[in-house]
Amino acid sequence: MARLDKKWLLARTNSEYVDYLAKSLNVSTILSQILINRDIKTPEKARSFFDSTVSLLADPYMLSGMGRAVERINIAVKRSETVFVHGDYDADGTSAAAIMIETLQRLGCAVRYFIPSRFVHGYGFHPAAVELARESDCSLIVTVDCGISSFEAIDSALRYNIDVIITDHHKPAFDELSGQPVLPAAFSVIDPAIMACDNPHSQLTGAGVALMLSMALNRSGIVDVADLLDLATIGTVADVAPLVGENRLIVKDGIKVMAAGTRPGLKALFEIAASANRTIDVELLSYTAIPRINAAGRMADASEVVELFLTDSETDAKRIAGNLDALNFRRQRIEEGVFDSAINQIEIEGFDRAIVIYDEDWHEGVLGIVASKLVDKFGVPAFVLTVKDTVAKGSARGVPEVDIHKVLSECSQYLMQFGGHKQAAGLKLKLDKIPQFIIALNEAIKRTSDDSASQSMIMIDADCSIKDINFKLLNELSMLAPYGYGNPEPFFGIRGLTPYSPKIVGKNHLKLKLGDKGTQFDAIGFDLGDHLSMVSGTGRVDAVVTPTLNEFNGSKTLQLNIKAIRKSAVV
After folding, report:
1. CA–CA separation, 338 vs 344, rounded Å?
2. Residue 439 shares a structural domain with residue 473
3. If I label 58, which of 134, 186, 507, 565 is the partner at 20 to 30 A Cα–Cα?
């Protein structure tokens, strides 16, 4: 029941226009082709894309509610009020909290902060947190990465005369008749999801919204937001936000801030992950620092992540990084067991347009990761749930063709609670409602999703020969970075390659050399071990690849990351 091999589709453009853009920019025709594929079709637009920096971020006051929030925080500063910052237990929520805490402290505010426990409090802003704020004599609460659906908590705060500023990026509930968002009665609500989708801030994460509030508070020049970009980058990458527009600007400059190594906590994380001397990029973040950051919320208490982000002590940073590394190791072992169990269940039960599986023995903290891995393997949305006291609770991950939040909205009559984004969500429902939910879910996906052939296609940016792959091309491609969701690494199609010395490494990764006419590169195909017999025989192969820089023991070599491979018609 593995994912079907995708059809290969090569993007083609008028060759004369490709040549024109290449000459205008003094770049290769390969890079010119990629730019055109991504709707960057003029020299002016390309130069703007290449030269973009965080200084080009749109005015934070374009976010509704921003002016009122800044006014209230400035009053808190003048009155020496204590401000209560409420975050979330994932990497976006903890990085957003650190941004807000650091900003308020620089303004002179006394700050208390609270990161809920996944296991004790669950997701979101709840009345229990308002009680904590009241006990701490806080007269203002600022939420980050949560709060847009916290009606009960806001009502509780109002009873205690505590003002609440909500900063969030999750979708609110919408009134079916008016089509308008239904919002809690907070002092101010800042959430790009309640605004028109063409707003430049529309795809910000919780950390991105917190950064915008920090920028708005910087009119006095007290708060330098430049050194908060590393935290905003953590949240943006961890939440798999599209790396276009505002998000690309944040991550592009944020990676530079990280590379400077001025934040002891992040420096300690990279050191313990054995990546301190490697070039920092989105991929490195995604596989080293971010899993360790998220491990705290998945396995224990995420409060120490905020402490890690804020500490100036290298000793404390190393201690906390060590704790997170140990938690991540434990998370990996548990995740492997849940994933294997999930695969067994899928093989027995099968699925239609989405995978919906559950088990009372599955650890709640790894369900989102397992769902992501199932999406990668099977190419359909995955809903992975654990069960306690007749209630199923868990995480969903989607594919580009399916808006997870939208289909959950269409099935809301079967749910106790849900919330999230287009590609990721959390949900809770009664165990006996699952059969009805599955039927409604499959119908909603069929009705609302883009049912085109996109799921079965792999888009190739350019057709080239292996001799075109070199360090000069890699340097050109770096101008397109940072890569990630919404701005993927370019895919190249190369025909007629000869495979050498193929073998399986790791769990199911295909490692070999690919060559043609005297040029040869190491290549790795993650989770492509099933193709070993094909490349072990005689004959040539075609491959869809991304050239990457492999760093090992201080040396840097070119390596091909194989995305797809097949027998070649070239003899």
Report:
1. 10
2. no
3. 186
